[in-house]
Hints:
Blueprint: H1 17-31, E1 36-42, H2 48-61, E2 65-70, H3 82-94, H4 96-100, H5 123-144, E3 147-152, H6 159-169, E4 177-184, H7 194-201, E5 207-211, H8 217-228, H9 234-244, H10 248-257, H11 266-275, H12 279-291, E6 294-296, H13 297-304, H14 308-320, E7 324-326, E8 329-330, E9 333-334, E10 338-341, H15 344-352, H16 356-370, H17 376-380, H18 384-394, H19 398-414, H20 418-431, H21 438-442, H22 446-459, H23 463-480, H24 483-497, H25 504-518, H26 525-540, H27 544-559, H28 566-585, H29 589-605, H30 609-625, H31 629-645, H32 652-668, H33 671-678, H34 687-703, H35 707-719, H36 725-741, H37 745-760, H38 773-791, H39 796-816, H40 826-843, H41 848-857, H42 877-892, H43 901-914, H44 917-930, H45 951-961, H46 966-973, H47 977-991, H48 996-1005
Parallel strand pairs: 1-4, 1-5, 2-3, 3-4
Antiparallel strand pairs: 6-10, 7-10, 8-9
Amino acid sequence: xxxxxxxxxxxxxxxxxxxxxxxxxxxxxxxxxxxxxxxxxxxxxxxxxxxxxxxxxxxxxxxxxxxxxxxxxxxxxxxxxxxxxxxxxxxxxxxxxxxxxxxxxxxxxxxxxxxxxxxxxxxxxxxxxxxxxxxxxxxxxxxxxxxxxxxxxxxxxxxxxxxxxxxxxxxxxxxxxxxxxxxxxxxxxxxxxxxxxxxxxxxxxxxxxxxxxxxxxxxxxxxxxxxxxxxxxxxxxxxxxxxxxxxxxxxxxxxxxxxxxxxxxxxxxxxxxxxxxxxxxxxxxxxxxxxxxxxxxxxxxxxxxxxxxxxxxxxxxxxxxxxxxxxxxxxxxxxxxxxxxxxxxxxxxxxxxxxxxxxxxxxxxxxxxxxxxxxxxxxxxxxxxxxxxxxxxxxxxxxxxxxxxxxxxxxxxxxxxxxxxxxxxxxxxxxxxxxxxxxxxxxxxxxxxxxxxxxxxxxxxxxxxxxxxxxxxxxxxxxxxxxxxxxxxxxxxxxxxxxxxxxxxxxxxxxxxxxxxxxxxxxxxxxxxxxxxxxxxxxxxxxxxxxxxxxxxxxxxxxxxxxxxxxxxxxxxxxxxxxxxxxxxxxxxxxxxxxxxxxxxxxxxxxxxxxxxxxxxxxxxxxxxxxxxxxxxxxxxxxxxxxxxxxxxxxxxxxxxxxxxxxxxxxxxxxxxxxxxxxxxxxxxxxxxxxxxxxxxxxxxxxxxxxxxxxxxxxxxxxxxxxxxxxxxxxxxxxxxxxxxxxxxxxxxxxxxxxxxxxxxxxxxxxxxxxxxxxxxxxxxxxxxxxxxxxxxxxxxxxxxxxxxxxxxxxxxxxxxxxxxxxxxxxxxxxxxxxxxxxxxxxxxxxxxxxxxxxxxxxxxxxxxxxxxxxxxxxxxxxxxxxxxxxxxxxxxxxxxxxxxxxxxxxxxxxxxxxxxxxxxxxxxxxxxxxxxxxxxxxxxxxxxxxxxxxxxxxxxxxxxxxxxxxxxxxxxxxxxxxxxxxxxxxxxxxxxxxxxxxxxxxxxxxxxxxxxxxxxxxxx
Length: 1021
């Protein structure tokens, strides 16, 4: 076998000038106080680690503190925060005071930090405290010197590590810091959990991506020549350079193997290096591959069963041939008294060659070694339990796998990693029925494990799974016969049931049972919470008097508790929110907001995030119902920020806030932000979460005329038979509006009927007041009848009767519904006004004044004063529609055509500002029929935005201008090909272009696209 220099040892870096320049520039910016995040991507073996090594060397020479953490392919071990454990461990050695000053960081130290030792810590906020501690420590570190933080192999990162990295990169402000993360592009399959993270990160202004492409032909030949060092002929050098395809690691392996002929596949190339070694060495490598990328010498000795001299000889040969690296570090992995495979690909190739029986036997041997009772140091190591569970499962030792899974879930809980808690707890639950005497083996009862899983599922955005697990936890608690424990579990289960629409009566039954269990026991915080949760459920069902009574009872019980009882404080906060909701429905919104102001600090003090987010949501909805859209948006945004920081965006009130904010942004005309907030970008969430956000996102999609994609989404949502009232309402609304814009009024009428029936047939509908969304749906039904009447497809008396019935539905709902403020808010009044205006289109005569009233009614969209907006004011989407209909009605009265020009120009200005293509088309068509020039000299120049493109739209257009296809542009921006198409459609609408080529030409002509914009922009959408 040809002797080969170790890649990177004694050989200068070949090529890579652009990449090195980008990394050096990031270091320079950080030194000057401008932090940067760098995502270094490339295929396996292309040279990312070498670039990291060069960057680390430069940073250290420039006085940077260097912190390295590496993710490891741990199969299903799911070691939470593994790279950050290494980073914090190094920080504790270099700057121990930074860790001491931030106690929450101790969760990331080797051995962890038990949650129970933290007095009063709440599960919802624990992860946020860890994240804040890491950020604060880095702030302190970079105050004295610049720092480089490296996270390698992000494609193997656990979810908690990914969340922490996103948190840090999204908060880069003035630190002298570079955060460098590497990942394999060839590992990112379509549903890889890193993909949505990257999509989010590349939008951050402080984050840039550096793609490490394969070396070019000349550079590849230069590298091969240096590696061969004169040992290969010129023809063979060229053959190897061609075969390696610019991959540095592949080049080295080919040079090593080519003395025995040039192999073909990569696996064959990798194994060629191993097959030339002695049989004993190959056996040791097989044993080592089962341990993972890194293997401890002692473990390798014990599992291999070889004599000391025999093992050392085998290891010496493996090291000499650059298969293993001994001592020191390899790619950032500390390897004192251990060995590391020089490249992960080598280890993978060897592992996959193992026979099934051989693989399970070796896993079992490692599991037995890890389970030894006399290994306390091993047990304290990060991820010990998760690693043990992995080996025990692979080795078919189910009792050991159960015990280790429980321990791993507990360890993940100590490290504030809910995603990993769920993974390990669910594995323990799967093993429970097949392991004899499972409770003794696990050391805890099944109910406790199930409660862990239920809480973690809800915290990670899967309410359906959280409810299923909560139900099982309640069944197990009932079997144990502890009333206080059962009551606590029951009220948590009732709380989770409220996350899903249609489960309110089940929640009421469970909440009443939770109260009955402790009603005769001495007063306690459990009793206070039982009253509070029952009050919340009753309020959801509009039983306001009883809800108020239960909330007052909760306050009375809580007042008798000690001041330091944080559970009682949380119950008090929740009861105050319920009382606020009751006060608002009773017509006293100001008192409601005072109560919410009292509840927020109490919820924060009790560290009860769910109650705190509920308070944000209740206040935001209160403001939204009054038409105070800007203030409501601010409240929703503040609540969303809290939810995002604590990883609860997709669960409970985190989701409610997200959906409500999408709707508020749409109403206010901030459509780009609404679309961005409604995009899941590949997030792994439950069907419930996806459907609610998708339904809200359809508002903008339909208004902008993306009927094909909206139609597919609407069909998916309708096929899923939604029970969530908001989803039913939004699907009916957007489906009807899409059908109306496309000239299919009969279809719109059917969709309205379907949605109204859905709202009236829910499990709780008979006991509830009419849903106020029925006003809007009935209004669209009247509009559909108006279009049918105009088409003459049905007898006029039948159309009039149908329209009259729908108007009656709207009037009845407005009179008998239950608005939050006691009286119908501006949105409800506006839709009712539109219903009456649409009815004039059915029965006549044309009435411009009805549409004037509608323009005023929807004035809250743009926060303009009540009354008719002046000509130079910006109009909202619904106002623009009213202006179009007023112009139509005015023309129908026989008025001069020039009289409608101001209305049509104002409507078109609003439509173009919002990129509302269907509305803009309707305005242009009416103007053409009336002979009105929309581009008249006196048209308000303020109606056209001089720079209408968002940064993301400009980024997409720049890539198109550079010749990229939609797929290529999507790959560079980490968005789907469909999303690129959506952005281009939006751009063409804004620029009045009919094709992508014309859009590029118009953008250049208007100075919206400069030559520099051909490079990919990394900015917020």
